[in-house]
Amino acid sequence: PTSSAWTPSAPPSTSITKPSRPLRLATLNCLKDDAHNKDLLLHDKRFSHIFEELKALDADIVGLNEVTRTFINQAMAEAWIREGYYLSAVVGSPSCEQLS
Q: In the predicted model, what is the mean pLDDT of residues 65-70?
C-alpha cells in the first residue's frame, strides 16, 4: 500500500550523472504565520498559492525563510514535495525552534 506519510529517503547514489538541464534554484520568504493575524494573513490561501508557484517553478533546490510548523505540515502533505524533495532544517538553531 502507498503511504502518504513523510518518510526518510534512501542514501543517495554514488554514481555521477550529467544533468539534463541547468540547475534551478528558488528562494522565498513565506512570511511567518502569526496566529493573532490569521484572518489578515490568509495562511491557507497564501500557502496554497506558494505551493502552486513552487511546483510550477520546478526548481531543483528550494530555500524557504520564515517557515513554521504549520507551513511544514502543509508542505509535507503535498505528494509532489514528498516525492521530489528532501526536507532539512538547522536542528538546535534558535531560528528553527518552532520546527522541533
A: 81
Tell me the angle at which helices 69-76 and 43-57 cross, rounded to the nearest 10 degrees: 50
Q: Residue 59 contacts by C-beta under 8 Å, 6 or more apart in sequence? A: 24, 25, 26
**pLDDT at residue 1 tops 60:** no
CA–CA gap between residue 33 and residue 79 (Å, rounded): 22
Whole-structure pTM value:
0.67
Tell me, letter by letter, the H, E, C secondary structure of the chain: CCCCCCCCCCCCCCCCCCCCCCCCEEEEECCCCCHHHHHHHCHHHHHHHHHHHHHHHCCCEEEEECCCHHHHHHHHCCHHHHHHCCCCCCCCCHHHHHHC
